[in-house]
Design goal:
2 copies of one chain form a homodimer. Chain A is of the alpha+beta class. Chain A folds into 2 domains: 268 residues, L-amino peptidase D-ALA esterase/amidase (4-Layer Sandwich), CATH 3.60.70; 123 residues, Ubiquitin-like (UB roll) (Roll), CATH 3.10.20.340. Chain A is built from 11 helices and 15 strands. In chain A, strand 6 and strand 7 form a beta hairpin.
Chain lengths: 404, 404
């Protein structure tokens, strides 16, 4: 498997584009993105668990009931959520895209991201859809990645190439959002495309299995968005024998998918609102995987630990505390903690109690941009990884007055 | 019932004091507090649910097994938590206080608050205990309240006077902590004293019932401390007929206790680390009380809403989002939201969707120091109140480098 360029257009038969149509006031920010497959693709999606769901999610869910889709349309700047006529608007947006592309409306994945509770004006989208379509190209992955950004500071895309049944396949994706985990603005969105042939059922299984270890293990601020959505379109143009059951081929596809999703997870966490550092928490030795996940997420979600990481302060007591209140069944007297980065690693806690360590060395390690928090529990073989970021002045600044 | 002065010394037979003994480097900060009842009192306590528990909590729990206590000793600056010999140290600290006061060691409530995972040096306490005891007085409530502060910016105390069985009773309390909810430093501690006569069982019942609606409904940052503890000592010196069962007398006691605890809750939330505002979230119309509590706490814990309140931004979509991911069974299409403060009130959401409102008026309301977030759900008669604070630059500053 190798990493290639092209993002969401790397797979055969996919083109994309992004434009500024006028939903966002700032004309230098793209606010409308389109991804198109030249043939109908098998499609799967997962959605936020928030009871308050963005209207586009409801429409997309209905469209994907048959496991098929051919295009993705997504605007930024407005979430189309908590609006009385949201579903109607999402359907109209979907119909506009379908009409421009000459495909069925129920082959459209529709998504929106931005402020909650403000009516989404369709006029800019109506005006933007033709130039958006006209500009579809194999080089359009970047523009599409930009079109879905809100508070993101970098565009997030990746693609990989791999072999399936003697055929070269590609899988690529773009993402937006500084967490899974931004209710009013960021709202994580991920669009993945592949030319691998895989049945709708197996595609759904691959996605559901993967997100449990990837996107569901990312946290920026603990706020689960109303508009989170991850979709994957598989158009089969690489002509590998269609994957219809578990086995070696499915495992290969899963591995490629996981390479794409873990990369995007790390990008999302590292670009968390206001973040200066990516935190990767690796938990091992837990009773089981579920316990390891609970512990890893609790650590990564602790505001106090996040603030300590911003200050490059090896305040490991906050890690013990977060393990203790996580609700996980852990023998806290058998916990080991160390910090690791490009500058080396340092152990700070053994058997649940502090040990002597060099504060200078710890500071040097924690001043890096990517920090591993390594936690070992003495209860079994469960392990898990979670991704997060530090809590900074800029997080407060960005969210103190997002709407204006 | 009327509010009186004296705090933890307002009740008959209680004296207190606070000194600087040297655990904290800053000599202007008191770091050791003592509360003493001239007779043995009935006592009850509740403790953190964190699996990682401060050593003093384990010792106090053992001491209170017989439902009796006569004094409280508490240091700030060091939590005596995650230390290999923590329990031994807490027992020695307890024994020192008992010896100075001439009472049994198991009549001591011992508590510590401060950094986790650093050995607690007993020398300053050994040196400070005699002056601490010598200075015990009816005017010492203030000094004791100061002795337990860490990152608190104001001391937190209150007392009320009320009638029980024809006798005048008093109940007072002091608290520290900017939440229930500060693992490494603040760690909420509350010490309540009363001269009412009430049996150990009923005292325990009163406390457990009360904290479910008071301290357990406070959040500053979602981090449940390892050292949280609320204790109440009732020495019976007001000579009311001892309360031994539920009924009018118990209800009167509960009401007085609740006045004290709600006041302290509001003080703790309003003095949350870095906070500029107290947030009080009132939820009504939920299916039941448990649902209302879940909703109120989810709202008060949302980092995004907390940041919006700091910016006086009426970003109600974040409230809907927090309701949606709370896990509570709520019909989100029937949610009403309004903001209220000394400057008036304003409705911002009806039936789960936005309504037109004056942003200027909303800003004026939200610029106040105490904000009510009023949420009405259309599912039943359950209501609840939760207290929190805004998320500010200073929270990040305080916690980015707490240990140095």
């Amino acid at each position: 498997m190798k990493i290639i360029s092209g993002g969401v257009c790397a797979a055969k038969g996919f083109t994309a584009n992004g434009v500024h149509c006028g939903i966002r006031k700032n004309r230098t920010k793209k606010d409308l993105a389109l991804i198109f497959s030249e043939v109908q693709a098998n499609a799967a999606a997962v959605y936020t668990t928030n009871l308050v769901k963005g209207a586009p999610l409801l429409v997309t869910k209905a469209h994907l009931e048959n496991g098929k889709a051919q295009a993705v349309i997504c605007n930024s700047g407005n979430a189309n959520t908590c609006n009385a006529d949201g579903v109607e608007i999402a359907e109209k947006m979907s119909a506009m895209a379908a009409s421009a592309l000459g495909i069925a409306a129920d082959d459209i994945v529709v998504a929106s991201t931005g402020v909650i509770g403000q009516p989404l004006n369709l006029e800019p989208i109506a005006a933007g859809i033709e130039p958006l379509k006209a500009g579809l190209s194999k080089d359009g992955g970047d523009a599409a990645a930009e079109g879905i950004m809100t508070t993101d500071t970098v565009k997030k895309e990746i693609a990989v190439e791999f072999e399936l049944g003697g055929k070269t396949c590609r899988i690529g994706g773009i993402a937006k959002g500084s967490g899974m985990i931004h209710p009013n603005m960021a709202t994580m969105l991920v669009f993945i495309t592949t030319d691998a042939a895989i049945s709708p059922d197996m595609l759904k299984k691959a996605l559901s299995t993967d997100i449990a270890d990837t996107f569901n293990m990312v946290s920026v601020d603990g706020d689960t968005s109303t508009n989170d959505m991850v979709t994957v379109l598989a158009n089969g143009l690489s002509e590998n024998p269609e994957i219809t059951h578990e086995g070696e081929q499915f495992a290969t596809f899963m591995k490629a998918l996981n390479t794409v999703t873990v990369y995007l997870c790390r990008m999302i966490a590292g670009d968390g609102e206001g973040a200066t550092k990516l935190l990767e928490c690796k938990v091992s030795g837990a009773k089981d995987t579920a316990t390891a996940k609970t512990v890893a997420k609790s650590i990564i979600c602790s505001s106090l630990l996040k603030a300590a990481m911003f200050g490059a302060d090896a305040n490991w007591g906050r890690i013990l505390c977060a393990i203790g209140y996580s609700g996980a069944d852990v023998d806290v007297s058998k916990v080991f903690v160390s910090f690791k980065s490009a500058k080396g690693s340092i152990a700070v806690c053994e058997n649940g109690a502090g040990i002597d360590f060099s504060e200078e060395k710890a500071k040097e390690i924690l001043l890096e941009k990517e920090i591993e928090i390594i936690v070992s529990v003495g209860d079994g073989n469960g392990d898990a990884t979670a991704w997060g970021c530090d809590l900074t002045y800029d997080y407060v600044k960005i969210n103190g007055d997002y709407r204006t």
